[in-house]
Write a structure and sequence with these properties.
The protein has 20 helices and no strands. By secondary structure, it is mainly α.
Length: 463
């Protein structure tokens, strides 16, 4: 077994030099900005393809909210126990072994966060490019530029990034709420579509169908745990981390249920199936052609807000690993004036730009991302169980409601979703597992570097 490099000091990591500048509103709006992006527009058509009736569709969105809440309960306890940068990297390291923490941190930073940044930047660029007739090269160049610009905004201060998140989150919530209210009041829809049963020629739904439908739903809820990754920068974390998770998720779940109900009010399930942009299609059906352009503009604003939130959160994972000597030297550096993890932000920007140059077009939301998140969420809950047993006396400002039954049901539900995804999309799931497993040799490299550094009289690896 590779040697452990743990530390269990209460409170912040002893080497963490980030300042606590974020309040409850900032943390909750970070969750909102991370969750509400393009998913609520692009995934409902995928859900409708897999489920035959409005009742099942709304049930899937409600199930996604409840599963996310169950995960939030576990993360609230873990985040309040370990108010440090890095999120589940820290929890798995503390509960099991640094290798477990590193592998999920490696997957999150390299594939999920940097990859999401690249995809969002390309989506934003292609959305503008479609309006102005840009070429593919122009789209890529603009995506690189917006990635650098948003990274620079977060480089010069966490407050700037938080203010941008707060602004875009308020715009998102207000616009979606207005759509949900004005659609039934002034639009041309039919409430019978919301209560209709499955069409006579539709086959019955199976558990695998419902599990696969939860994949795009959970993709749309991704980001509900965003505040735990910046825990070392949240004031009064024992109180504000749990509250930010619950408040942010409640706002997102409420909006999602309202908006999906309006989609079904505007469109029969047969028209919703497979539609690439449910928001635009529903707006056109409700209000006519002019609304389609307004929705397209709002989607771009929403994508930009999620891009900013993702750029803010991702570097804290690499920063946390570097604090333990499990990442490249200097990535734990904090800018003397801006008090941000400046090197980690730069590294993430470089990785995202590299992916942009490699991808060159907006990739569809792949199941391997959701599969990775499902596995990581299950690992978080296992960490909660183990820490309850191995560190029973550790201060817990918040204790997960319903333990051990609610976390247990969450594990079983996620295991069922993972099994359905393995059956329905084995290749994507295999890619996710392969990316996860590449973290092991990288972890071994950093451990060897630590050993050489200690033998050479230095306290940091020379990587």
């Amino acid at each position: 077994m590779l040697p452990a490099v743990t530390e269990s000091q209460a409170g912040a990591h002893p080497g963490d030099r980030l300042d606590r500048q974020l309040g409850l509103t900032d943390a909750a709006m970070l969750v909102v900005a991370s969750v509400i992006g393009a998913g609520i527009f692009f995934t409902p058509g995928q859900v409708a393809e897999l489920l035959p009736a409005p009742g099942w569709i709304l049930a899937a969105w409600a199930a996604g909210a409840l599963l996310s809440l169950a995960g939030a309960l576990a993360n609230a306890e873990l985040g309040a126990m370990f108010p440090r940068a890095g999120g589940d990297y820290v929890y798995l390291r503390e509960a099991f072994h640094p290798a477990a923490g590193f592998m999920v941190g490696w997957l999150s930073f390299l594939a999920i966060y940097a990859g999401t940044i690249a995809a969002l930047a390309l989506a934003f660029a292609e959305g503008l490019g479609a309006r102005f007739g840009w070429s593919e090269s122009a789209n890529v160049a603009f995506a690189v530029a917006i990635t650098i610009a948003v990274s620079a905004l977060n480089f010069v201060g966490v407050r700037w990034g938080a203010w941008a998140n707060n602004l875009t989150s308020v715009v998102k919530l207000g616009a979606l709420l207005a759509f949900a209210v004005l659609g039934p009041l002034f639009g041309e829809g039919d409430w019978s579509r919301v209560t209709a049963g499955a069409a006579p020629d539709d086959a019955g739904i199976t558990a695998i169908d419902f599990g696969r439908a939860l994949s795009p739903v959970l993709f749309s809820y991704l980001g509900w745990n965003a505040s735990v990754y910046v825990a070392s920068e949240i004031r009064n974390p024992g109180r504000n981390i749990p509250r930010s998770l619950f408040l942010g998720l409640a706002l997102c779940a409420g909006i999602y249920m309202l908006v999906n109900t309006v989609y079904l009010y505007a469109l029969p399930v047969s028209r919703l199936r497979g539609v690439s942009d449910a928001g635009q299609a529903a707006a056109l059906a409700l209000f006519g052609p002019i609304s389609g352009g307004l929705v397209a503009v709002f989607v771009l604003i929403s994508v930009l807000g999620t891009l900013n939130a993702t750029v803010l959160v991702g570097p804290r994972i690499a920063y946390a690993m570097a604090l333990d000597g499990l990442f490249f030297r200097g990535v734990d550096r904090v800018h003397a004036g801006f008090r941000t993890p400046s090197t980690a932000i730069g590294v993430q920007c470089l990785v995202a730009v590299g992916l942009l140059l490699l991808l060159r077009s907006f990739p569809s939301a792949l199941d391997f991302t959701v599969f990775a998140i499902v596995l990581a969420s299950m690992a978080d809950v296992l960490a909660l169980y183990r820490l309850r047993r191995t560190q029973p006396d550790r201060p817990r400002p918040y204790r997960a409601w319903g333990h051990p039954w609610v976390p247990g049901l969450y594990l079983l539900a996620n295991a069922g979703i993972a099994a359905a995804m393995l059956i329905g999309n084995p290749l994507d799931c295999a890619i996710s597992l392969a990316i996860l497993l590449t973290g092991w040799p990288v972890y071994a490299f950093f451990v060897r570097a630590q050993r050489r550094a200690r033998e050479g009289g230095s306290d940091r690896p020379n990587s």
